[in-house]
Structure formats: C-alpha cells, structure tokens
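The following block was generated as part of the benchmark described in Methods. Ligand: FE2/S2 (inorganic) cluster.
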Amino acid sequence: MAKISRRDFLRGSAAAGALGTGILGGSVELEAAPRTEAGVGIAGPGALPMTFRINGETRQATLEPRVTLLDALRDHLDLTGAKKVCDRGTCGSCTVLLEGKAVYACSVLAIEAQGRSIQTVEGIGRPGKLHPLQAAFVEHDAQQCGFCTPGFVMAAKALLDRNPHPNLDEIHQGLSGNFCRCGTYAGMRKAVLHAADTADDEETEPRRRRKKAEAEADG
Ligand code: FES
Ligand code: FES
C-alpha cells in the first residue's frame, strides 16, 4: 500500500475539498482517479470495493472511503467484538491489532487497512476455546459491564506479543490507552500476569513431555 505522508494527506484533503470529492486512497484501483499534486489518487466519494485480511480470512465489502475500520467491522463485516464508545480515539474500546500493533479502529479508515493483517477479538479465541488472556479475564473476574473488555484483551495481547513477561508497571503502561468506566483495572492486571504465566506453562509442558520421552528412549 502506498505510504501517504502528512503533507500529502493535507494536500489531498485540500484537493478533495476543492473537487468536492472524497479522500485519498492507497490500494484501491485509482488509475483513472484524479490525483493530488503529489500524485496520490483520490478515492470516492461513492462506495468502492475493498478487500481486507481479517483473522486470517479474506473479507470484502463495498464502502465509502470515509468509513472507519470500526464501522466496517461492526456494520458491514458482522464483527461486533470491537466496541464503539467514544468514536474519537480516546477510550480504547475499539482496539484491534493492525499488523500486530494495537490501534483504535475508530481512528483508522477502512480504506487504509486494506492489505494489512487485521486481528479482532473474535480471531483469537471462541467460546469453548478461549485464548489464555480471555480465560484469565474470566477467571479473575476482570470485568463488570464488559463493554471495555474486548479492547483490553486486544491491548493486552499486543503487550504480551512484544513482551511475554511484563511486570505490573509494564502492564499498567501497556494498557494505559484503554479506559474502564467500571474500574476493574486491578483484576485486569492480574489477568494479564496470569495469562503470561499460562503461556509459559503451555510452552514448557511440551518441552517437559519431550524430555521425559527422550529420557525414556535413552533407557
Ligand atoms: S471508540 Fe475508538 S477509542 Fe473509543
Ligand atoms: S467493565 Fe464496564 S467499562 Fe470496563
């Protein structure tokens, strides 16, 4: 996908406004589209076919370029795990992973997310086969209304993916982009610590079994 600098974006926005058209687009078919001075195609304002990589699957939708990733997921792709609360990048309830990094889906345009790996809370576990983080949130009663929970789980996943053994301070820092109005922070931090330990157990158990098998084989 073409990278768009802030300067290009501002130029494009001005151009789009002047043309009365839509917004900049990177990976949609834009050969015949008008271009900014910097040569970036302008998409829209009408709906365009878009293709996404979500939870390992290819998904398609026809969306206006102004549609956010959050609205695309919830309203067009039947993935309602990410929640819409502030819709302005402050609460974290809409957190998903984009190329493995936690992002606010309400602050990313769907058109920009094309061709990039998107992971939502639905993609990491399901009832009966929960991700260790999801299971730990349940075990530690780390929720009340639960509205913030999917966002916290995804932020915690991003944290453990880059730091499998965080201490409490690092967990505090890693979850600092997410708000819980019910105030279940203590339970959530414990859940993340627990999930990190569980992942350790899962890693070491096959090793233990292999060593035992090797010892038995050695006689
Ligand atoms: S809904 Fe996206 S940050 Fe609040
Ligand atoms: S559990 Fe209610 S907002 Fe977090």
